[in-house]
Amino acid sequence: MQKGIHPENYRLVAFKDMSNEEIFITKSTANTSETIDFEGTEYPLIKLEISRTSHPFYTGESKLIDTAGRIDKFKNRYSKFKK
After folding, report:
1. C-alpha distances in Å from residue 50, one per residue of 20, 23, 36, 77
2. Which of 63, 57, 26 is nearest to 43 (CA)?
3. Going along the chain, which residue ranges are E strands?
4. How many Cα neighbours within 13 Å face the side chain of 35?
5. Of 53, 29, 26, 25, which is closest to residue 37 (Cα–Cα)?
6. Stretches in the chain below the pLDDT threshold 70
7. What does the angle CA 68 – CA 29 – CA 7 come to, to the nearest 5 degrees?
8. N or C: which end of the chain has fewer CB within 10 A?
9. How crowded is residue 15: how many other Cβ atoms within 10 Å of its Cβ?
């Protein structure tokens, strides 16, 4: 392994799946200004739209999660091209 090419600022970070409110803790170097209190400890917070707890591949369920209304925006934008 080469020296000096890996980041030094690894810390514990809370990742929150916004579709099902699941939180998991892991090490990361990602920058964030938000924090969350989880199990009595304050962690930097990274918000995710989808994670292993809500992704259909891992859950075995096939459901559509549209948190930002992207499908409706797409349909509205391209409805004028409809024949």
Report:
1. 9, 12, 18, 24
2. 26
3. 11-17, 22-28, 35-38, 41-48
4. 6
5. 25
6. 52, 54-68, 83
7. 145
8. C
9. 19
